[in-house]
Amino acid sequence: MTTIKELDTYAQNTWCPGCGNFGILTSIKKALADLEKDGLDLNKVAIVSGIGCHAKIADYINVNSFYSIHGRVPPPMTGIKLANPDLTVIGHAGDGDAYGEGIEHLIFSAKRNIDMTFIVHNNRVYGLTTGQFTPTSPPDFKGRSTPKGSPEGPLNPIELMLSAGATFVARGYTKNMKHLQSLIKTAVNHKGFSFIDVLQPCFTFFNTYDFYNERVYEFSSKDHDVSDRKAAFVKAGEWAYGEGEKIPIGIFYQVKKPTYEEKLLAGRIPVQLTPGDIRPVLEKQI
Amino acid sequence: MKEISILVGGKAGDGIRQAGHVIARFLNRIGYRIFFYDDYPSLIRGGHNFSIIRASEKRIIAHKETVDVIVALNQDAVNNHKHRLNPGGIILYDSNKADAEGLGIDFMDIVKKFDGKPIMRNTAAIGALAGVLNIEWSVLEMVIKDAVGHEIDLNLKIARNAYDWIESPSKSVSKLDQKPLPLVSGNEAIALGAVKAGLNMYIAYPMTPASAILHYLAAQENELGVVTVHPESEIGVALMALGAAYAGARAMVGTSGGGFALMTEALSLAGQGELPMVIVEAQRPGPSTGVPTYTMQGDLAFVVHAGHGDILRVVLAPGDAEEAFYTTGLAMNLAWKFQIPAFVLSDKHLSESIFSFDADLDKVEPEKPLLWNNQGEYKRYLDTQNGISPLAFPGNPSAIIKATSYEHDENGITTEEPEAISRMQRKRLRKRKTLEEELEKYETVNVYGNPDSKTVLLCWGSTKGACIEVAEALDLKVVQPLILEPLPVNALKKALSGADKIIDVEVNATGQLAKLISSHGICIDDMILRFDARPFTVDALLDNVKEVLS
Prior knowledge:
The complex is a heterodimer. By secondary structure, chain A is an alpha/beta fold. Chain A has a single domain (5-283), classed as Rossmann fold (3-Layer(aba) Sandwich), CATH 3.40.50. Chain A is 33% helix and 16% strand. Chain A has helices at residues 21-37, 57-60, 74-83, 95-101, 103-112, 157-164, 177-189, 209-215, 229-236, 260-265, 279-283, and strands at 45-49, 64-67, 88-94, 116-122, 168-173, 193-199, 216-218, 247-254. The radius of gyration of chain A is 20 Å and the shape is globular. By secondary structure, chain B is an alpha/beta fold. Chain B folds into four domains: 3-165, Pyruvate-ferredoxin oxidoreductase, PFOR, domain III (Pyruvate-ferredoxin Oxidoreductase, domain 3); 184-363, Rossmann fold, CATH 3.40.50.970; 370-442, no CATH class; 445-549, 3-Layer(aba) Sandwich (Rossmann fold). Chain B has helices at 16-29, 75-81, 107-113, 121-132, 137-147, 152-165, 186-196, 211-219, 221-224, 234-247, 257-273, 300-305, 321-338, 348-352, 418-439, 464-474, 489-496, 512-518, 538-549, and strands at residues 3-12, 33-39, 46-56, 67-72, 85-94, 103-105, 183-185, 201-204, 227-229, 251-255, 277-283, 314-316, 341-347, 354-356, 402-404, 445-449, 455-458, 477-481, 483-485, 501-506, 526-529. In chain B, the strands form three sheets. Chain B has an eight-stranded mixed β-sheet with strand order 6-5-4-1-3-2-14-7, with helices on both faces. Chain B has a seven-stranded mixed β-sheet with strand order 9-8-10-11-13-12-19, sandwiched between helices. The longest helix of chain B has 22 residues, at 418-439. At the A-B interface, strand 1, strand 2, helix 3, helix 5 and helix 11 of A face helix 1, helix 7, helix 9, helix 10 and helix 11 of B.
């Protein structure tokens, strides 16, 4: 069995002290170790990250990883999963990656319901580029590119993913680590596209700890029917990524549907395919 | 030389290309070698489409401006093309839709007689043409059965009725004692070359003139053992291919210039991450949307230089269907041997034209890349003598594989240390040297025509067909580099040595090959550039070359 320590690498961690990313790193490592106990082969796990503070996670976890480019987390994930559906593919993206530069890929991944897990490190600010507004920054956010306040309102990624067809939609918070670990494990075990928006304070450029601590509350299937799409939208509407009284975290929606790779591959495994004979094909063209 | 050129024209929706196919196939079946050129505007209904089918007793890979028969399904086909008619040529036209000097038959009336659909006028035209060419009915019958997918009996009745209309064949073509060959488009040859070299996944977003690769592979996925994927965009396409390669699948993508523009960030990632991929770039006229369904060789500079950073890549430029087959196979093998992006640079004229295909299929085989031996600790970017690091794939029980867009150490962990950075840069530079040495094993520069001629037509890609015939007519030499990056400088200099006059022939506005080779100290003396979005024809180029030489 792999210990949490063995999931570390020698890479020096360069996140700011107090960064919410630590909560996600600990949670994913713990979740992977737990999943291994339940039978997951960690050599068959591939992590994909984008570019930004979040993405350093690829260097910090000792499993297969594909450190991609900004906004392009879902496409390599999709390529990996389609090439070898036997692999468990987990994506880490920032909110700039997922909801800005690469939003088309995210929407299509949900629409296709491809079996992979997508974790957004949503700090609602560009960290590595030192503090500009993102697609989920609150209204009038004063960042370095919008010193007078952002002229755009935030989008609600939970609603977006519900609309796009994701079959597992959840929100977590980095301070509630046990809850987050449980969300990640459920997401990885879910067959289909699993989406988790993780509220992750940026200690340096957008410190939201107090804001979240006062508002975040956990909900569960006891008080919410996860198969009810309408109820999921109502729940998602409780907080619109601006001000607000209450911020629900938990699983908004989970249903089972056929997956993209099942439909597209119909049992074929590309990495094991051998090329067909081209001669009969050419014969037909005489 | 026994040869005949036939132009069939009408509006989009008249089934012109389909008619051209049937004509090409019956001429193929009686032993002729075929070159089939298709000309169509970017629309679905209306406009003017035409195809030229050139059939010859010898191998040909170009068409001519002039034709011997025009088959006109409307008046435009007569008006636009009658000037092309050779002396003694004939116009066969639908007297219901057009008026001309020639042989008019009411194709619509024949179709109506059998309650056929209006599009079946093309079948009537084919039947009448077969009569004019004195093709045995049994040959046409077999071709219609093989080529027409539905309502075969109805089509046969219409064709036969039109065939019987012709009392005396005025353009009789004789049967040749040659085996028919498969008729293969450049795009199909690219697809087949990739499959032969072990293609597992073809990933593409539709874009003319590359779309037919996707259609061809998708229609025959099971026979060819390939998974085809049509993602959300070219950005998605290229990055999916890199993900697939990371997982161990041989992937290829296909597009044109505009789509490739969106792939350049993935190209750069392939360079940094040392991820193999094959990119088919089938050029069309730009800039931007340009002229979407016509041809140009305008992306050479783009493909050779695309992507930020120093990227090791190979660019292959086939000029006919056989070369498209071989070079795509080679591109796949080089991509995996060297863990690099490999380009097949085609254009509309190569991709969508159809050729009599006579390749040695066994010349393309999947070559094994350098795989990890499962000993010790795996390092994705192991610093080796020849610059090539052994590959392992996720799922390997004893390896952790870290691919990355960042500069990295041997394990694939990010580094910003100057020594580690230059070490990896040097590793990739050594890999370039290894690649250049490997390429010396291949025929990288083709020579045609009279090898002793002091006048050289220098060309690349699909322009080769017209150049070869012009060179044969004027006793000149043709030099065609098949690999454009890394440029085989020595082989090219050798092929050009002794030349008094080098005439660069390209289908673009600035002479991109001439510019590229000038940076290696090779200078040309004259340029013949065509940039009206049409390919060179043999007779038009002949006039151009004569003018330059006079």
